[in-house]
Amino acid sequence: MNRRNLYIGVALAILSITACKPSLDEFTPSAGTKADFSKYIAIGNSLSAGFADGGLYLDGQKVAFPLLISEQLQKVGGGEFKSPFFSEEQSNGSGYIRLKALVNGQPVTEQVTDKLAYRSASPKLLTKFTDPINNLGVPGMRMDMAFAPGIGTAAGNMYFERLLPEGTPPTMDYYTYSTTQNHTFFTFSLGNNDALGWATNGGVVKINPITGKVDPTTVLTEVSTFTGLLNKYVTELTKEKQKGVLATIPDVTAVPYFTTVTRQALLAAVNAASTTKVTDIYIATKTGPRAATDQDFFVLPFSSAGLLGVPNENKIPYGLHPLNPVADQYVLDTKEAAEVVARVNDFNNAIKSVAASKGLAVADVNAFLTAVKNGIRIDGLSVSAKYITGNGFSLDGIHLTPIGNALMANVFIEAINKTYGAQVPRLNISDYRGVKLP
């Protein structure tokens, strides 16, 4: 054998050996043996439903994180997953906001009002969708309200009312509806609104000025109530040994709704239009007005309210004097922020505890979105909690973009793989978009 043939023979031998040797990074999709994905249901609120940009509409529904999870589960033998999609003719659903332009770097949005899906204007009711579904996410749903009789009536939650057939008993509650679906696997993502509703209203409970009734969506749920209802819910969902994933609740102060409008930005805007330097923004608190600090959170809607600096009948400019402070509803102050963060931590301890007792997976959404707040890079994309440019959050500053939903789905998939010995493939984040630009 000449030298050239010797080299070729050695090279072929090496290639043959290498081809037979498994790669350390080899990934073979598998459902494992610890969970049954044949009928997966998603229980949750607006995040599960695909709500985005301040509304529920078809494009958002099509990238809801439970649907993205189901597509990956189907790659390992999971069953069909149906969603209550709006029709193409009514694809804009409840309506939503879209980005119209960027003027001097500032977003200009507009409300989408065509191709809506309302069948009644008063009370507002959406076109019914009563076929069997797997994505049971209902915008606005809370842990406490899930057990409330009448939540699915015309006087209750219009998103839940949409899913119930005509003739459904008025006493039907979301808990009963969602636990009688003959599921084999579930994701559970309730509890955000038990803290978020209070926080987005600046730590204020809304009271109807005419009836004097409390708006239950703005109440901060007690820990004992939350824990008791959570345990009842999960016990029912697992009574036939079903497996699932419980999601922790995000730190509400980590989202753009609370981090975009800062004290410094407000002062800069005021001073740009003033000949006299302004050094303080005054806010109303439960103990009286005071100068805002960088630890107070102004809510996103305040930026477009057009109130700052506007004088009242006594010619005192709004927010620039303690006698005309920014209303409490526009600010989650330091004490209120600490209270809601502590409450969310208590909720999450309850979630982790019941998951451990039932042998269920935990998707730590709280930890993940905290990391996103500080900025991450994944699949070649940068994602953060920056408004619009951060890629993760939609125009309402709370709900997710398609990129955000894909990231969320991967958090659940990683929990499934870790807990149930499965190898469900993750999504490639670069396949999805952030905020849709004009």
How would you describe this protein?
With 438 residues, the protein is of the alpha/beta class. It folds into two domains: 40-258 and 335-431, SGNH hydrolase (Rossmann fold, 3-Layer(aba) Sandwich), CATH 3.40.50.1110; 263-331, no CATH class. The protein contains 13 helices and 14 strands. A hairpin with a 2-residue loop joins strand 4 and strand 5 (124-126). Helix 4 (65-73) packs across helix 13 (402-420). Residues 3-24 have low confidence and may be disordered.
Quick overview of this protein structure:
The protein is an alpha/beta fold and 438 residues long.
Descriptive keywords:
single chain; 438 residues; alpha/beta; Rossmann fold; 4-stranded parallel β-sheet; 13 helices; 31% helix; globular; disordered N terminus
Q: Supply the number of helical segments.
A: 13
Q: Biggest sheet, in brief?
A: 4 strands, parallel
Oligomerization: single chain
Assigned CATH class of the largest domain: Alpha Beta
The beta-strand count equals 14
CATH topology of the largest domain: Rossmann fold
Average pLDDT figure: 94
Distance between the termini: 69 Å
Strand order of the largest sheet: 1-6-7-12
CATH second-level architecture of the largest domain = 3-Layer(aba) Sandwich
Topology record:
Layout: H1 3-20, E1 40-44, H2 46-49, H3 58-61, H4 65-73, E2 97-103, E3 106-111, E4 118-121, E5 124-126, H5 158-161, H6 174-178, E6 185-189, H7 193-200, H8 223-237, E7 243-247, H9 256-259, H10 263-272, E8 282-283, E9 290-291, E10 297-298, E11 331-332, H11 334-358, E12 361-363, H12 365-374, E13 376-378, E14 381-383, H13 402-420
Parallel strand pairs: 1-6, 6-7, 7-12
Antiparallel strand pairs: 2-3, 4-5, 8-9, 10-11, 13-14
Helix pairs in contact: 4-13, 7-11, 8-11
